[in-house]
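Researcher: I'm preparing a figure for a lab meeting and need a structural model of a single chain. I don't have an experimental structure, so a prediction will have to do for now. The sequence is pasted below. Please return the structure as tokens so I can convert it later.
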Amino acid sequence: MLQIQVNKEIFNLEPSNSNVQRLGDGKYLLTKGDKVYELYVLSESEDGKEIEIQIKQSYFKVNIQNELDLLLNQLGFKSADLKKVKELKSPMPGKIVKVLVNEGDDILTGQPLIILEAMKMENALQALSEGKVGKIMVENGASVNKNDILIKFA
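Model: Understood. Here is the structure written out token by token.
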């Protein structure tokens, strides 16, 4: 689900009943239910979360939040705070099954970095923002405690 705020009005887009199709040169078709909108993207923030669009002769400022953004907001975090993250810490005690990145690698938001086994389940710990792997503090097979630093970002 995406939550989109157009000016002060909030809309929820479910993938099951909406679709966005890129036509090229900043032109898109947005289909929601049985309605189709032709829109032009005039400008976009670096993270793609804020855009200015034109639909016919009307202009709108649009803020886009995905499920992760909504969850973080509920927990009292702001997406901007994610850019300040300098370390990946273990969310729980467990065992490092596999380190999926190398020092110096460029990483993307949502990219799996480490597989952590905890309570007989494997958990993929993902990057919260784009960046570069600085120093990897653990190796495969290592036992870790909650809040141990696993990766430092450059």
